[in-house]
């Protein structure tokens, strides 16, 4: 009787070996819990049991990674997949596919949230995506944008820096970093990143002109007008029709009391866009210093039309009228300026 039972057990074990291919029963159970029962918790339990029995089984680790993926526990998923590959490349293709599927799902979810003005929630999705496939430069750029949108500038800078580590020619990330440093009033770092675009990306880059302008402004803010002027002169040599550069150069000439040169810069800017308040005020200041008082009246009057509640525009209009010999209109403008200033 005992012999018959033993023989039956041996036959059963033999049959199990044929069916499972000498597979650990715990691994088989994990597959069932994953594929049939959709129960990742029990699958993980079986995988841990299988690993205790055979610590070098790549399949047990692979299945554990899949189970963690179902639970959205991505760091644990990564660890399991890494351990699987340490013990052999058998499941390389399956692991690559699973990682790409999970990464794409998180990326798409993040983009959707970002587009719906939910930057903080989007950042969480992008963060998880970077843990799955950290070698994807675009994920870090999405993460940087989400951080920036949620006013976390320093984290955004770090994310964009990571994108540059993966792609040294990613001049968009340099541009974003520069703008973020500019927002943080760290003008030295902003200049450093703008200069990468200017010196390496060159005029072919869509960020080149703006980088030139902003670098010049940074030098201006830092009290280095000579360097700012060099930037603007270079830009105008390359593109004489760049009105932003002309305006910036005009401001420097105005500060240096080189009023004729300032007017030379401001005139085409004003002609191109006479309905811009800053353009009108700037050319007005240059003309009044050059004693072209009637022209100054015209420009400051235009400024008051665009911003009738701005007391400074009325003050300078009054100054221009008085210097042009029209005291009556000058008094009216000064009174208006005082009235607006008191009401602030």
What's the topology here?
Blueprint: H1 2-20, H2 25-35, H3 40-53, H4 58-70, H5 74-86, H6 92-115, H7 119-132, H8 137-149, H9 153-166, H10 171-183, H11 187-201, H12 208-221, H13 225-238, H14 243-255, H15 259-272, H16 277-289, H17 293-306, H18 311-323, H19 327-342
Helical content stands at over 70%
Q: Report the mean per-residue pLDDT as an integer.
A: 91
How many runs of DSSP E, i.e. beta strands? 0
CATH C-level class of one domain: Mainly Alpha
Strand content: under 5%
Elements, N to C (H/E) = HHHHHHHHHHHHHHHHHHH
List segments where confidence is low: pLDDT < 50 over at least 5 consecutive residues. 5-21
Shape: elongated
Question: Using only CA atoms, what is the Rg?
Answer: 34 Å
Name given to the CATH homologous superfamily of one domain:
Tetratricopeptide repeat domain
| CATH topology assignment of one domain | Serine Threonine Protein Phosphatase 5, Tetratricopeptide repeat
Please give the largest β-sheet. none
Identify the CATH architecture of one domain: Alpha Horseshoe
What structural class do you assign from the helix and strand content? Answer: mainly alpha
Gap between N and C termini? 107 Å
- Number of distinct helices: 19
Structure description:
The chain is built from 19 helices and no strands. Mean pLDDT is 91; it is low at 5-21. The protein is mostly helical and 344 residues long. 80% of the residues lie in helices and 0% in strands. The radius of gyration is 34 Å and the shape is elongated. Among the domains are: 17-89, Serine Threonine Protein Phosphatase 5, Tetratricopeptide repeat (Alpha Horseshoe); 240-344, Serine Threonine Protein Phosphatase 5, Tetratricopeptide repeat, CATH 1.25.40. It has helices spanning 2-20, 25-35, 40-53, 58-70, 74-86, 92-115, 119-132, 137-149, 153-166, 171-183, 187-201, 208-221, 225-238, 243-255, 259-272, 277-289, 293-306, 311-323, 327-342.
């Amino acid at each position: 009787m005992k012999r018959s039972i033993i023989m039956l057990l041996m036959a059963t074990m033999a049959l199990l070996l044929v069916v499972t291919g000498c597979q650990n029963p715990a691994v088989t159970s994990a597959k069932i819990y994953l594929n049939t029962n959709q129960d990742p918790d029990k699958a993980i339990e079986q995988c841990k049991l299988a690993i205790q029995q055979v610590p070098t089984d790549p399949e047990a680790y692979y299945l554990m990674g899949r189970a963690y993926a179902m639970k959205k526990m991505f760091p644990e998923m990564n660890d399991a997949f890494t351990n699987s590959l340490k013990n052999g490349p058998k499941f390389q293709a399956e692991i690559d596919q699973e990682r790409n599927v999970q990464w794409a799902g998180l990326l798409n979810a993040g983009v959707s949230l970002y587009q719906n003005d939910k930057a903080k929630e989007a950042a969480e999705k992008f963060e998880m995506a970077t843990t799955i496939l950290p070698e994807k430069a675009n994920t870090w750029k999405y993460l940087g944008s989400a951080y920036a949108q949620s006013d976390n500038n320093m984290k955004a800078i770090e994310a964009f820096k990571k994108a540059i580590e993966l792609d040294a020619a990613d001049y968009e990330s340099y541009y974003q970093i520069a703008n973020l440093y500019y927002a943080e009033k760290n003008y030295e770092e902003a200049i450093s990143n703008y200069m990468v675009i200017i010196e390496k990306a060159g005029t072919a880059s869509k960020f080149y002109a703006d980088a030139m302008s902003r670098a010049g402004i940074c030098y201006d803010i830092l009290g280095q007008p000579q360097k700012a002027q060099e930037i603007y002169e270079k830009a105008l040599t390359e593109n004489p029709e760049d009105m932003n550069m002309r305006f910036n150069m005009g401001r420097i000439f105005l500060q240096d009391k080189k009023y004729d040169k300032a007017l030379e810069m401001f005139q085409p800017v004003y002609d191109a866009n006479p309905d811009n308040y800053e353009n009108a005020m700037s050319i007005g200041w240059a003309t009044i210093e050059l004693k072209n008082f009637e022209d100054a009246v015209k420009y400051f009057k235009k400024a008051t039309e665009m911003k009738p509640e701005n007391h400074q525009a009325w003050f300078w209009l009054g100054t221009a009228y008085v210097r042009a010999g029209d005291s009556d209109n000058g008094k009216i403008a000064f009174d208006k300026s005082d009235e607006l200033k008191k009401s602030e």
